[in-house]
Specification:
The protein is mainly α. It contains five helices and no strands. It has one domain. Helix 2 runs antiparallel to helix 3 and helix 3 crosses helix 4.
């Protein structure tokens, strides 16, 4: 069982009614979103965030993916550049 504690945060008036949840799935999503900025700035890893939330890393990655937050931060152009560099290295290794 995941140990929890209550904290007080300041939010704009009108937002508080959306923070009261009875649905465990919504609570998990909310908590994952609260952790996301710390993943983004590399304070914690996806694995550590998942550990804090009491779920597997793959579940957290799937949750973020469903919300539109990609696990990979490379664009397709970046990926193409990386693949081309890899292919060039492999060609040179094969030639030796």
């Amino acid at each position: 069982m995941l140990t929890t504690e209550s904290v007080t945060i300041k939010v704009p008036v009108g937002m508080s009614k959306y923070l009261v949840t009875v649905n465990p799935e919504m609570e998990l999503t909310r908590n994952a979103l609260l952790l996301y900025p710390y993943i983004l700035n590399q304070t914690i890893s996806h694995g550590r965030a998942a550990e804090i939330l009491g779920i597997r890393k793959s579940e957290l990655i799937d949750l973020y993916d469903k919300l539109g937050y990609s696990y990979f931060d490379m664009t397709m152009d970046d990926l193409d550049d990386e693949l081309n560099a890899f292919r060039e290295v492999k060609k040179k290794e094969a030639a030796v």
